[in-house]
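User: Please predict the structure of the protein below. I'd like the answer in C-alpha cell form so I can feed it into my own downstream comparison script.

Assistant: Understood. Taking the following sequence of 76 residues as input:
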Amino acid sequence: MAEIKFEDALKKLERIIEDLEKGDLTLDEALKKYQEGVELSRVCAQRLENAKKKIDVLTKNKKGEFDLKPLEEAEE
C-alpha cells in the first residue's frame, strides 16, 4: 500500500467498516473492501508500533535527576 498518513488510513478504515456494516454491497464489493480494510489495519498497527518505539519517557532517578528511558524500560 502506498505511503499514507496514519490519520488518513484510520478515516478510510472507518468508512470501509461503515460500508460493510450497511450490508448493501455485493459479495465481490464486500470482499474487496474487507481486503482493503485488513491492509489499512496492518498499516495503522505498524505505524503505532513505530511511534511507540520512538517515544521516550522522562523519569526521575534516585538522585532526583531526570533520565530519558525507552518506553519499554519505563513500563517495567
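That's the full C-alpha cell string. The chain has three helices and two strands.
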